[in-house]
Amino acid sequence: MTAIPESPRPSTPASAGGTNRCPNGRGRTTAPYAVAREVEDLHALIAQTGGQAYLYGISSGAALALAAAAASPGITKLALYEPPFMAESEDGTGIKKYTEQLHELLDAGRRGDAVALFMTHVGIPAQAVAHIRTQPGWAALEAIAPTLEYDDEVLGDGSVPRDLASMIAVPALVLAGGAGPWGLQQAARATADALPTAGHRTLNVQTQDVAPEALAPVLAEFFGA
């Protein structure tokens, strides 16, 4: 997740302060975990950079960004990429089962299986997950697997938090990859529908691993408008 201070050049990478979420890393890991503490950390970052900022979040970081925007007037534009509110495309039984299985795997120290469970949960085919497990970067994903529990808490029951979304009146943009799982595309549409001032856009041939060259111009246009 990235907070970009308001400035004449809002798309300049050097002006951005980042708080990353799994699977790309994350901020605070002090137990016990609380979403409210993450929101506090983000607000502190924004305060240090002038008190107002544009905010971009991807995956579970998008869910956290939504919560932060509902709690702070300092966030003046909001962009989200594929918030994984999977309950918008499946019943709550599957969400609950995923949470239970995730905790069981992590408690047993089966970090790799926990990462694989997450990937299949968001719609990545099992065959693709098996291939990813053979790649050099898999060890890094296993190392941060315990933070999947934090992501699960941020997402709550897996549905769009419409009560929070209805409180956000700033310009917003919700994005999804056109080549990604249908469930994530549906979650993005539902999130955009819940935000009073949001637009929705699909990036063709993109997945959750969105290419910077495809994403950056869209964000620059939105934040620079």
Explain what this protein looks like in three dimensions.
This protein has 225 residues and is an alpha/beta fold. The chain folds into 2 domains: 2-89 and 156-224, 3-Layer(aba) Sandwich (Rossmann fold); 92-151, no CATH class. It has 10 helices and 6 strands, in the order E-E-H-E-H-E-H-H-H-H-H-H-E-H-E-H. It has helices at 35-48, 60-71, 92-107, 111-121, 126-132, 138-143, 148-155, 162-165, 182-194, 212-224; strands at 2-5, 17-18, 53-58, 75-81, 172-177, 198-203. The protein has a 6-stranded mixed beta sheet, with helices on both faces. Helix 9 (182-194) links the parallel strand 5 and strand 6 (198-203). The protein is globular, with a radius of gyration of 17 Å. The model is unreliable at 8-28 (pLDDT under 50).
Topology (elements, then pairings):
Layout: E1 2-5, E2 17-18, H1 35-48, E3 53-58, H2 60-71, E4 75-81, H3 92-107, H4 111-121, H5 126-132, H6 138-143, H7 148-155, H8 162-165, E5 172-177, H9 182-194, E6 198-203, H10 212-224
Parallel strand pairs: 3-4, 4-5, 5-6
Antiparallel strand pairs: 1-2, 1-3
Helix pairs in contact: 1-2, 2-7, 3-4
If strands are numbered along the chain, what order do they take across the biggest sheet? Answer: 2-1-3-4-5-6
In total, how many beta strands? 6
Domain count: the total is 2
Q: Residue-averaged pLDDT, rounded? A: 88
CATH superfamily of the largest domain: Alpha/Beta hydrolase fold, catalytic domain
- Shape-level CATH architecture of the largest domain: 3-Layer(aba) Sandwich
Radius of gyration: 17 Å
**What sort of overall outline do the alpha carbons produce when their principal axes are compared?**
globular
Give the H and E element order.
Answer: EEHEHEHHHHHHEHEH
Question: CATH first level of the largest domain: which class?
Answer: Alpha Beta
**Unreliable spans:** 8-28
Which structural class matches the secondary elements? Answer: alpha/beta
In helices, the fraction of residues equals 40-55%
Strand content: 5-15%
Q: Major β-sheet, in short?
A: 6 strands, mixed
Q: Tally the helices: what do you get?
A: 10
